[in-house]
Amino acid sequence: MRSPIDSYLADLHADLLGLSSGAPYQGIPAMKDADNTKFAIAMATVDGHVYQVGDAELEFSIQSISKPFSYALALDDIGLDAVDEKLDVEPSGDAFNEISLSRDTGRPANAMINAGAIATISLIRDADAPRFERILAHYSAAAGRQLELSDSIYASEALTGHRNRALAYLLRSFDIIETDPTPVLEDYFRACSVMVNARDLALMAATLANGGTQPATGVQVMGKEAVQRTLSVMTTCGMYDDAGAWISAVGLPAKSGVGGGLIAVLPGQLGLAIYSPALDPHGSSVRGVAASERISADMGLHFVRAARLGRSAIRENYDITRLPSHIRHSEAATKLLAQYGERARIIELAGDLLFAGTESMVREVSELDACVELVVLDLRRVDEVDKIAVQMIHQLQRELAAESRTLALVQEIPFEPLASLRSFPSRNDAVEWAQATLLARHGTADMVPETVAVRDFAALAPLDGADIALLESLMEESRIEDGRIIRRPGEEFGGVYFILGGKVATSTLQGGRAVRQATLSAGMTFGEIALGGEGEQTTRVTAVGRAHLKVLSAASIARLETENPGAALRFWKAIARDAYTRVEENIKDSSYPLH
Amino acid sequence: MRSPIDSYLADLHADLLGLSSGAPYQGIPAMKDADNTKFAIAMATVDGHVYQVGDAELEFSIQSISKPFSYALALDDIGLDAVDEKLDVEPSGDAFNEISLSRDTGRPANAMINAGAIATISLIRDADAPRFERILAHYSAAAGRQLELSDSIYASEALTGHRNRALAYLLRSFDIIETDPTPVLEDYFRACSVMVNARDLALMAATLANGGTQPATGVQVMGKEAVQRTLSVMTTCGMYDDAGAWISAVGLPAKSGVGGGLIAVLPGQLGLAIYSPALDPHGSSVRGVAASERISADMGLHFVRAARLGRSAIRENYDITRLPSHIRHSEAATKLLAQYGERARIIELAGDLLFAGTESMVREVSELDACVELVVLDLRRVDEVDKIAVQMIHQLQRELAAESRTLALVQEIPFEPLASLRSFPSRNDAVEWAQATLLARHGTADMVPETVAVRDFAALAPLDGADIALLESLMEESRIEDGRIIRRPGEEFGGVYFILGGKVATSTLQGGRAVRQATLSAGMTFGEIALGGEGEQTTRVTAVGRAHLKVLSAASIARLETENPGAALRFWKAIARDAYTRVEENIKDSSYPLH
Questions:
Q1: What kind and span of H or E run contains A73?
Q2: Closest-CA distance of chain B to residue A152, Å
Q3: What is the dihedral of CA A451, A454, A456, A462, to 10 degrees?
């Protein structure tokens, strides 16, 4: 199934393709004719999943987006303190090509402006391998594939970079660069001329989001301290003189490049990359800024809102064979449910359904096997449902319905914007619905019998016709009205109750509140619990609708034991066998939350 | 029990009290003699819990910390667009009292510098109530108590605020302030002269952290959009010309005031406030900055690290009576455990144990009833344990031990820094340990018998001595070596096994892996599961240590049924009763995750 997140990105892409303001960077001949119909959006999660739309594999030069990665490499190479001696971390409030050196020390204001980025290059070690080889290997490790230098862009950069040459010499004059500035500048131009695509940039951004570990390859590319520092500087300095407006509108550490790329990072969760070559007056991609603002607002990525996202939104994902309802079905129905049960899955969510939780939930549902017909989202432990979650859950419902699949929710008190969707107050109710739906779709009419004759009770299956007839002759028949209590906690063993028609519900009293446990329907028995001894009935049993019962009372059983010990023996053996069938079902059930 | 977070804050407070650099603000006569031995730290969570240490109820003037709250009020009053017309959101890179107006439009760079804050006051509605009344009510609602104006500080501010008067007239000249600037300025001075304490500021900061809802009173004080914008501007402009260094070192939106107060906000989680009057050259509290840096680093609050915190760290908190082990105890031991079981609690955690998860876990443990002797932290669903969590868990262990209470962990693969603590691979193992510990402490020696005679088996309790002797005479005795398999999945019913000594473990095969389900010990039976029919044994049963068994084989039972149906009847009835005792235990168990 197509993920609603892919649908969302496709719509956004189509929408923003209409934005035609701005022009490609004119400063470098090799870049000024870039095709402004090209437009890509890519999003990589910290577990390595990439969503992409448009020209996400079209290559362009990385330009200034190289700066944060060079900065992280320098920080890892020589440590924070040594880097700080040469470079400040303050926003300059200036454009990318401003000089912004401290009047006294010559320290560039930060590593995201050109002066700072050139100084950064000079701080990267080139002892064991040529410096640019190390830089390229570093970017490649973050992208998760081998990147290449564009010779033509490099040649163009080197030919036209007069202002950067001036900056490099100025840095040399202050001893910020301590060696010959020419090779430093050449490596700076090379770093800017590395070719990437939007997918690469999304994974590079996700590597920052993931504390320096590349999400797809698992390689630790950068240290955590270097990542924290780099993202901090990106926060205040990544968008040049537009930093305040960017933080207000988008609220993510980011970096743009005049090549048309833009990355934004949601720490712990997501790397976002956009490519489109037409630039605004700040030197950032017009569609890149617009898409970032839209995605941040629609998906709730602004750091103020995103802060509460936990990663553990999906608590469990299991099919109903793993945790069946307490309804007892006929042997044929049980077999069918064992076979078809995997077609009904329950996904249990917890915490706040903001971006990360929603994304992982939507992905989980989208990637379910096509055989799954019924999807139940258990929302009982969800604290908050953000608008992105509401939108995506409704979208999931439509996409599933289009494939003749059904979405249902478990919500004790429904979230208002989800109240229109099929909902159940408990998981057990949802499982009962799923079982009934599967039996109706794939079974025969007799599998969910309205009524069951005593001779067809699973509990009595080991007995022969004569034994069953004898037992039935000892039973008393009754019809109980809806809501009437049949058994009360504390009662003595009153016999074995056979449900011939209708339903009963069992509940326990917890803190004065009746907590529903199970619904029993035709073909099931109850009352045996009280066998434990005097006053051992622990559950309350109530009729749900009108229930048709036959009871083999304690007195009748006592009479049978005296008059026909052989039949009584076979009866008790059948009951013991039946009990152990239930013990076993429960062991399956209760072992489940243990692992 | 004292919370380890209180201990941490007390240590930090004692430590930083030694910092004696800086001096109180000299610009206002009423403030210049502030006592620099005063020092308070307060931390308020979004659920309204306040940690505080030092002079947390000593009042001082709010000064510039009023600015974000005035800004939020203006945003709520007239909307973001109308405010943006008068005020930019860009960092100025200047000190707090710099002019920083746009050359063309006169717009102040942001609302956190004086010029912007004065302009902000002019944007606050004063239609229905005098403007300052509304301002004071707004701050009071955020603090959760009625705040007061200091007349003496206000008088001092009004007398000495020449530069601010100049700013106000300059703003008037650009039509940024559209009315008489004098009343605006007076309200600005009043706003700065509101008296608060560190606890108030922590709750005001927590109100921002909590999306505008005061955590203790539940009052919605500010709109979410206003909060998001305010925190954005605090991020880039809250610490004046120190913004980049602050974001790098602390990584939280913040605001300081020359009164000696400082707030920092971890969105979604926490408000932090510090008071100490000696200021650094930027005009921020020396101890305030130092404490913020330490707390952020120690507790992992930097936005890059904190982003992954979920609120749902505590999945469950229950005592062992709610989810007992599968060990079958004697009646006396069972009664004792029912009575004392609440003294052993299991706290199940999930997600990342970074600050928020750790704080809630530590609070949960600290607030446990003093009767709780055994605390089990179930870490199986924890993805990451940050250093704050390691430190706090070790601290919890020591504090519990000092009160003769015991901490244990459940970790399948122990986290390395927690490997030295008492750990169990499964919850069931931890519960078995807790039960054995409670029985050893509060019970008698016979409650955890090494061996149980057939006549003392709970399953056979309804039978008389003659029946039991008869059954025992039909049993075959065996001793099984450690690790030997006794029953295999798929086997037919082989009889009922009585464990006289030692232990056996049952496990199921899930995806080819044996998953341990229960440990059975002396006094328990097994094998009945296979009663279901041919090949119905579903679990593997293995000896744990050397097991001493007696088995009533299927053949012996068949002979008994023929030769002595009365005794066989009583046997099967006892087994059925026993089975239903287990069904009931399991219903308790499995109903638990349902609610």
A1: helix A66-78
A2: 36
A3: 160
Nearest chain B residue to A518 by CA: give it: B591
How far is B493 from B532, CA to CA, in rounded Å? 8
Phi, psi at A199, each rounded to 5°:
-65, -45
**Which CATH number does the domain B314-447 belong to among 3.20.20.80, 3.40.50.2300, 3.30.750.24, 3.30.70.1050?**
3.30.750.24
Bridge partners, residue B213, by sequence: B220
Task: Give CA–CA dist A137/A198, Å, rounded.
Answer: 18
User: Is A106's pLDDT higher than 90?
Assistant: no
- How do residues B25-37 score in pLDDT, each as one tens digit? 998 888 888 999 9
What is the identity of the amino acid at B565? P
Torsion angle in degrees (nearest 10) through CA of A74, A75, A76, A81? 130
Query: Which of B541, B460, B331, B528 shows the shortest CA–CA distance to A579?
Result: B528
Total length of chain A = 595
> By C-alpha distance, which of B80, B54, B594 is closest to B287?
B54
- Contact: A91, B89; criterion CB under 8 Å: no
**Distance separating alpha carbons of residues B541 and B536, to the nearest angstrom:** 14
Q: What are the two backbone dihedrals, phi and then psi, of residue A182, each rounded to the nearest 5 degrees?
A: -65, -50
Q: Quickly list DSSP for B11-25.
A: HHHHHHTT---SB--
- pTM of the predicted model over 0.80: no
C-alpha B186/C-alpha B161 separation (Å) is 10
φ, ψ of residue B174 in degrees (nearest 5): -90, 0
DSSP A83-121: HHHH-------S-TT---B-TTT--BS-TTSHHHHHHHH
How remote is the C-alpha of B479 from its chain's centroid? Answer: 49
pLDDT in tens, A188-212: 999 999 999 999 999 999 999 999 9
Extents of the domains making up chain B: 4-306, 314-447, 454-591
Beta carbons of A251 and B268 less than 8 Å apart: no
C-alpha distance from B236 to closest chain A C-alpha (Å): 6
CATH 3.40.50.300 fits A4-306, yes or no: no
pLDDT at B593: 37
- Are B305 and A228 an interchain contact pair (Cβ–Cβ within 8 Å)? yes
Question: Bridge-partner residues for B375, per DSSP?
Answer: B345, B407
* pLDDT reported for residue B322: 78
Distance of alpha carbon B115 from alpha carbon A79, whole angstroms? 39
B64 is in an annotated binding site: yes
* B163 contacts B97 by C-beta, under 8 angstroms: yes
A-B interface: how many C-beta pairs under 8 angstroms? 261
Query: Which two structure tokens, joined as six digits, stand for A589?
Result: 């059930």
Token pair recorded at residue B303 = 């936005």
Spatial separation of the C-alpha atoms in residues A263 and A289, rounded to whole Å? 10
Strand A344-353 to A374-385 pairing? parallel
Three-state SS for B403? coil
Per-residue tokens: A373 = 């017909």
Token code pair at residue A212: 């320096």
Contacts of A586 in chain B (CB under 8 A): 583, 586-587, 589-590
Residues 6+ apart with CB under 8 A from B303: A235, A267, A303, A307, B251, B252, B266
What gap in Å lies between CA B32 and CA B476, rounded to an integer?
93
Task: Say which residue the tokens 């308790």 belong to.
Answer: B588
CATH architecture of structural domain A454-591: Sandwich (2.60)
The answer on pLDDT for A108 being more than 90 is: yes
The letter for the amino acid at A406 is T
Determine whether the interchain pair B589/A590 forms a contact, defined as Cβ–Cβ distance below 8 Å: yes
